[in-house]
Write a structure and sequence with these properties.
The complex is a heterodimer.
Chain A lengths: L9 H11 L2 H9 L11 H4 L8 H4 L1 H11 L1 H8 L8 H13 L17 H14 L5 H12 L8 H15 L12 E3 L3 H6 L2 H13 L3 E3 L9 H5 L2 H18 L3 E4 L3 H15 L6 E4 H10 L13 E4 L12 H10 L29 H7 L1 H10 L3 E4 L2 H13 L5 E4 H7 L15
Parallel strand pairs in A: 1-2, 1-3, 3-4, 5-6, 6-7
Chain B lengths: L1 H6 L1 H22 L14 H11 L12 H20 L1 H12 L8 H24 L1 H6 L2 H20 L5 H17 L7 H19 L4
The chains are: A mainly alpha, B mainly alpha.
Amino acid sequence: MAKVVTEHDYARGVEVLRNQIDAKIASYLSSCVGCGLCAEACLFYTETGDARYTPIYKVEPMRRLWHREQTVAGKLAKAFGFGSDLTEADFAEWQEMTYDSCTLCGRCSMVCPVGNDIAYMIRKQREAFSAAGYTPPGLQGASKRALEIGSPMGVTWKALSAQIGHAERATGLTIPVDVQGAEYMTLFSSMEIMNFPEYIEAVARIFDAAGVSWTVSSKAFEATNSGIQIGSSEIARELVSRVVDAAEGLGCKYVISPECGHAYTAIRWDGPNLIGRPYEFEVVHILELLDQLRLQGRLETEGFDERKLTFHDPCQIVRRGGVEEPPRNLLNMVAPNFEEMPDHGKMNWCCGGGGGLSANEEAHDLRTTVFKVKKRQLEATGVNTMITACANCRIVMEEALEHYEMPVVIEGVTELLAAHLKPKAGKTEKATTE
Amino acid sequence: MFLEFVEGPLWYASVVIFLVGIAIRFYEILARGVKPDLAVPRTDGTAGALRTIVSRSWTAKGFSSGAVFHLVAGYMFHIGLFVLLFFAAPHIVFIEERILGFGWTAAPHWVFIAAANLAFAGLILLWLRRVMHPVMRKISTFDDHAAAWLTFIVMFTGCMALLEGHDGLRALHMLSVCVLMIYFPFSRLMHAFTFVLSRGYTGAVMGRKGVQA
C-alpha cells in the first residue's frame, strides 16, 4: 500500500523534483521571461498583494534546480561556484507557496503569454514536497484516511449505506448496489455523502425517471483523490485503481464522476496515466451525462425556478476539465433568470478551497481572505442564489459566505434539476438495473 | 580594422554560437521527453496546440487591472523591435548581403522613427516595472537585467550607427549585436524560440480536454 511521508527528507525531495522535469516543464522554464503577469490572474496575489504568491515564484525551487542542473549556463555557473543547491530551508519555506497559496485552479495557466501551464508545474513540484514530507498535516491526515479507510473524511461503506437508506426512504426508490453489468457506476465524494446527501437522492430520482441502468459499488464509491491534492502519484494511483478494479469487475461501460472538481481531474484525465493504461470503461461527468439525457429527451423537467441565480464554474470541471456548456444547457431548462458572473466560464475565479486547501487548516485564514474576489463577483451579479457543481467548492463557499455575512444560498445543479423533474408516466418503485 | 573584425570573424563566431546554442537548448528540452497521454481526448490536441501558439499572442481576458501597464509596454517593445529588426533599411541590406542573398522593401523613415520610439519606450517601461514592482523584484534574476540592458545597448548603438560615415559607431553596434547573440542561447531571451514549444504543449493538453486555452 502507498504511504504518506511524514518525516522530513529534503534530499529525497530533490531527487524526486529532478525527475519531474519533463520536456513540457523544461520548455516552460526556458520560455518564462519573468513578466509577472501570472500574478494578476491569481486570487492569492490579487487579494493579498503578497508578491510571494506570484504563481511562477511558487515553483522557484523547481526553476533553480532545473537551471543549475539541466542547462549549460547553470552548469557553468555551478562549476565557477555561483548559485547554491536546494536546501532543507528551501523546502520548509516553499511548503506554504506549494500548498497553502495554490488551489491548482490553473487560471494563471490561461493567461501566461508564453503558454506556461504553471498549475501543472506546481502539481509536479508537490510530488517532490510530498516525497520529502513537507506537506500540510491536514492533507497528510486526509491521504492516510483515504488509503486506510477509503475516504479522506473517513466515510466508510456503512456510512454511505446509511445515507443510501435515508435516500431510499425519501424517494421511495431502490438504489442499486453492486449490480453486475449495470451500464453506469456512480461515484460520490465524501462531501456529498456527509454534507449534501440530497445529491444522492437527486441522482436516484433523475436516473429512475430517465431509465438509466446504474449501480453504486460497495468496494469503490469514493471519487475524491487525496493523492492528486497532496501530490503523490503513488497514492493517487492506488485510489484510482480501486475505482478501476470495481468498475471493470462489475463490467460497467461508464463511471460517473460526481459534483466534485478534482475528482473529475483524477478519474477522467490523470487516472489512465497513473495506472499506465486506458480504461475498459469511459468516464463521464454527471453534468455531461445529464446533458446527454436532455438531448436524448430522457431528462424532462417541468416548471421554472424564478429566482435570479448565477453559476460558479468549478475550476477542475470547467477550466481544467472542459465541461463548460453542459451546466449552462441544464440551467437554461429550469432557470429563466440565470445570469453569468463577470469572468465566468473558463476564466472564473476559484472558490479558494481547491487543490486540497479545504483540508488544509493552516490555510484557513488565507482561504477566507481570497474569497473576496468571489464576493465581488457575486455583488456585481446581484444574486442571492448560486448554483455550482462541486461539493468542495460549495462547502468552502458556504463557510466564507457565513464569514462575510452574505445572504447567498448555494445549491447543486443536479439537485436543482431533480426538484423540477417531470414525474414519469407509470412510475416504478425500482431504478432500472437491467 | 576593428569593423572588419566584428563584421568578419567575430560575426561568424557569434552566428555559430547562436545557432549551436539554440540547438543545444532545444535538445535539452526535447530530450527530457513527454509521456503519451492515455486519457481518451475530447477534442484534437494538435489543433489545440496550433490554436494556443497563435492565440497567446493576444491579451488574455481575465487579468486584473494591474496587468495593463505591462501589457501595453510589452506590445510597444515587441512590435517596435520587430519592425526595427526586419524593416530598417540597413538591416535589410545586411540580411541581403550577408545572410539570405535577397532583401525586401524597407519601412518608410517615419515608420522607422515610430518603431524606434515604441521599442525604446517599451523596453524602458518594462525595465522600470522590473525594478519598481514588488512582484517583478521578487521574480527577477540577473539574467533579466542583463538581457534588458544588452538589448538596450544594441538598440542604442544601432541608432548611433545610422550616422553614416562613422565606421566606429557601426563597429560598436556590430560588437553589441555579437555579444547579444553569444549571450542569447543561455538566457531568457530564448523565449523568442521556445515559446512555440511551451504554448504548443499547453495548447495540446488543453485541446485534448476540449478547452480553448
